[in-house]
Structure formats: C-alpha cells, structure tokens
Amino acid sequence: MNATDTSHLSKVTPPRLLAIKTRQEKITALTAYDYPLARILDEAGIDVLLVGDSLGMSRLGYPSTIPVTLEEILIHLQAVRRAVRRALLVADMPYGSYHVSSKQALKNAFRLVKEGGAEAVKVEGGSKRFKLVNRLVDAEIPVMGHIGLTPQSIHVLGGYKVQGKTPDSARNILDDAQQLQEAGAFAVVLEGIPRGLAMEITRLISIPTIGIGAGVGCDGQILVADDLLGISFLPKPKFVRQYVDLKEIISGAVARYREDCLDGSFPSEAESYQPEGNLTVKAFTRKV
Fold it and tell me: What pLDDT score was predicted for residue 286?
C-alpha cells in the first residue's frame, strides 16, 4: 500500500468483503462490546466488528452464551454503533431470538438494525436455517452464517468440542456452508473445525469464510477481542493468540493508584485546584 492509497479507510460492506476474497486478500474481524474498544478497533482498520453473544461470558459473567438476551445485545450494539465509522457492524442474534418463528426472527432482526444500528446479523446453524436466512435476506437484512462449533448448541454438542472430525460430520458442515450460500448469506463463520475442512469449504463456496479455530486457510479470521488483549478470565482456547496481557497492566496500575492514595501522594498539589487571589480558609468561616 502506497502513501496515497486510502482504500483501507473506505466503508466496509458485504460486497467489499466479497471483493477482498476475490482478490485473495485477508479479512480481519474482532468482537466489540463497548464504545472505547470499538473505536480503537475501528480506527486500527479492522474490517468487521461483531457485537457477539460472547459478551455474556466475556463481560457479563454468564457460564455460556445461552442466557444473553436481545436487550443486552442491543445495549452493547448501540454503544459500539456510536464508535464505528469504517468497519462492517454485525450483531449476533442471541439464543431464543430466532428459534420460535420467522415472524419472531424478523421482528428481532429489525430491532437490531433499526434500534441498534447493525448493518448485518449473524445466526448460528447451517441447513436448518436455510428458510430463515432466505427470509431475512428478502427483508433486506444481510446475514452472516455460523457453522461448525456453534456455542448456542453446546447442550446438543455436549460441550465446546471440535466439529467435522469424521467424514460424515465434515460432509454435513460442507453442506451447511453451501446451503447458507444458496440461502443468500454474504459470509460464514467457521468455528472449531479441522483446518483441512475449512480450506476445502473456502475453496468450494464463493462467499467469504471467517475462521475461529479453523486454521489459516479461511478468507479471514475473528477472535474475541478480550482474549487477544488478555482481559478474559476464561480458559484460553488453543486457537487464541494473546498479544498483550492487559489484565496484568491494569492490575498494576490500580495497585499503584491504591498505594498513592494510602500514602497521601495522590492527589499532588499540581493535581489539585488552587484558590483565586488571596482566598484563605478564613473566607469560609462564618462569623458568629
């Protein structure tokens, strides 16, 4: 990229993600849950920001993503929306928000777009979501699919286990990817599958694949930002690369602040407001 090339600053859209895949370049994606971090990630040039239901475990202290509500997604989505200028903003549809009927799913997806400012929604599941994805796309709502290890299905899957390890399972996941493409999804997240399977899916479908625990052969990668930054209290999955330990940095800063408060060195004179003129304590003393 030369000094006058500003293409990396232009707005990211679903068609642009497809163009990145076509050029055989890479897509970058991260989760975001609040204004400050979303602004930092957006200004750093990340292509896709996902307000994921992973916020339930990362920020709300839930044991899984299943308890996350649509209202909780909306609160965080609205905060992120105020920060994002360039990235494509995608919102997770949480568990229970699209499972009852297409009418319910449309109503909730509309809320994420109209009230939350999402530019696309993400739903978990492959072939069984064909009609839902098609209906959302018909309603002018871009849809990102999510297959492989789907966290909303952990009770059925028996936990957070790698999927697609057997020939039958691999064929089912490949079929899921093809069905999502046919239904109109603009991209698909591949989570927790063997890298060879992810490479084959990426080769066979024309829409971008975004990997998380799926190897380097995907069109792009996504991580939970809290894992990347080292501010998660959860066990670190094998596929996570932690780039900094913010937990240690923050803990150290807070410890120094506490010490300075206790020994009286904070606030200093320079950090305190001074009176104007010759104002003294006597000026505040009431005459009897």
Answer: 64
